[in-house]
Design goal:
The complex is a heterodimer of chains A (114) and B (112). Chain A is mostly beta strands. Chain A contains no helices and 11 strands. Chain B is 0% helix and 52% strand. By secondary structure, chain B is an all-beta fold. In chain B, a hairpin with a 2-residue loop joins strand 6 and strand 7. The chains are: A mainly beta (114), B mainly beta (112).
């Protein structure tokens, strides 16, 4: 049981390049989400999904797109990378939709934009 | 909007000491979650609290859901070097849109 798997683990991009961060979970979880973690700021929600075909914005969605074509996968797309998007990105999932269900996190993607 | 403030931001302690940290908010929360993040890894759930006044333990860790529902506390007894990491509190927003917010974290360093 792999849990939540994120790829790649590290990436360096140039400003203006596009990229997709991959996230997959094998627990049949309905809810998936993307966070970014910056020093001293904790984790901030970018986008989330409550099921296949359904996505919504979180706290800091600008510059990012998501889609949820299957229950298992929830990719995060940077259309035109900017230095402000240098961060560590975490994908998370949980079984139910209700907020009191704990989330399971991947190990993160460390992204640097030059 | 809702915010979670964690205190202290960081702490150095000697191995064997007890550790206390807290998480406060100006808003009421119905659930409190405590996560630990080891260096280079994603957060891992330590304890979940679902009821005001609830006291829950997980090994050497004990967490409490504050009576006012605006705070929560995490205690670690007899700290060991592997306790090092960042401890986050988290809770669901009250907007009903399935979102969590996270505190800014308490960074713990244990001196052997």
């Amino acid at each position: 049981n792999a849990g939540v798997t994120q790829t790649p683990k590290f990436q360096v991009l140039k400003t203006g390049q596009s990229m997709t961060l991959q996230c997959a979970q094998d627990m049949n979880h309905e809810y998936m989400s993307w966070y970014r973690q910056d020093p001293g700021m904790g984790l901030r929600l970018i986008h989330y999904s409550v099921g296949a075909g359904i996505t919504d914005q979180g706290e800091v969605p600008n510059g990012y797109n998501v889609s949820r074509s299957t229950t298992e996968d929830f990719p995060l797309r940077l259309l035109s990378a900017a230095p402000s998007q240098t961060s560590v990105y975490f994908c998370a999932s949980r079984m139910g939709l209700w907020e009191n269900q704990p989330q399971h996190f991947g190990d993160g993607t460390r992204l640097s934009i030059l | 909007g809702q915010q979670l403030n964690q205190s202290p931001q960081s702490m150095f302690i000697q191995e064997g000491e007890d550790v206390s940290m807290n998480c406060t908010s100006s808003s009421i929360f119905n659930t409190w979650l405590w996560y630990k993040q080891d260096p280079g890894e994603g957060p891992v759930l330590l304890i979940a609290l679902y009821k005001a006044g609830e006291l829950t333990s997980n090994g050497r860790l004990t967490a409490q859901f504050g009576i006012t529902r605006k705070d929560s506390f995490l205690n670690i007894s007899a700290s060991i070097p592997s306790d090092v990491g960042i401890y986050f509190c988290a809770g669901p927003t009250t907007s009903g849109t399935y979102k969590y917010i996270f505190g800014t974290g308490t960074r713990l360093k244990v001196l052997a």
